[in-house]
Each structure stands twice: as C-alpha cells, then as structure tokens.
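User: structure tokens for this one?
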Amino acid sequence: MNQEYPSTLLERAVKEFTKLPGIGRKTATRLVLHLLRKNESEVEGFASSITTLKRDAKYCSVCHSISDTDICPICANPMRDHGVICVVENIQDVMAVENTMQYRGVYHVLGGVISPMDGVSPGDLNISTLVERVSAGEVKEVILALSSTMEGDTTNFYIYRKLSQYGVKLSVIARGIAVGDELEYADEVTLGSSIVNRTPFTGKTVL
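Assistant:
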C-alpha cells in the first residue's frame, strides 16, 4: 500500500531523497520532516553545500580522487611516498585507508571493479591511467586494496596482467578483511593491519 502524504510538496521532497542509495521512503520522510523543522537559513545552507559540491568539485588528474583542485592534496604532498600506489575501488576506500594512519604512499581510484553481470568492463574503469603511471618508471610498488569479492579478485588479476611487463612489485592487502567484505566497512585496526601486512600478489585468486 502506498503511503499517503498530506502535501504534494512533502511527497516530492521525499521522492527526491529516495533516489539516494540506501534511503527508503520511511527514512526519506524522516529526513525531510527533520529539514522542515529547521530554520530557512539552515536548509538553504544544506542545499547550497550540495549544489556547490556538484558544481565545483573536481577529480584529481593523477589519482581520480575527489578534490577541490586539479591535483588532490595527497598527490601534491612531497612528504608522501610517490613510489607506492594503493589501488582502491572508490573514494570512500581512500578515506578508509587514510583513517588507519598506517599508509604514507599515494592512491589510484579505479571508480569501480570489473563486473560483467553489471555491465562494467575494464574500459569503464581508470585502469589505463594506472598503467601510464607505472610505465613512467618511478613506481616501485602497487598495492591492490580492492574488496575481497569475486569482482575484486577479477580486477586484481586483470591489473596484474596489465602491469606484469613493467617489473613493478605487486602486493595485495592481507586477508584480515573477511572474504566478501567491502573495504570501506572494515574497522580501522583490521584495515590498517591488512595494509601493513600486505603480501605479494601472484596473479592467483584466493576465493
């Protein structure tokens, strides 16, 4: 049974919120009513921050992470080890690894993982730019820090095949992350340990 709304304005706002991932109608209704109770300046500030984010946010020309500038602060930091690249699926994973405070290299955000079932092919991901970074000859290690799923392992193997000709060290995060787990949901201690205790990647899947 469809939920009845006393106002078409309320219903329209709820409908927009349900377009967000993981937000159902009940949660959307609660969020909209929460905003409705706020004063107008607070709601305008909320709306403005989203609009500004969409209009002004950039993606780093080096690693593809979100940034306010053409090159993100991590890639621009001379104190980071630019000879070590941690390959992750998305921006949330960059944030997760950074929160461990165990990693001082740089990143490469793929923008997803290879998933034929979902229509995601290697060409849809930022793999070619990773190959370009490695082929330049300054990278000594690539850490494959993708989720412990079949799609993650498939992507690991594809990257392994693309980079094997360059003689760069390839490693994978230790399986302190449970098989099937998404990286961004791992606790900081477990994820940090997995980064520190990474192992060489041989091109074989472990699932």
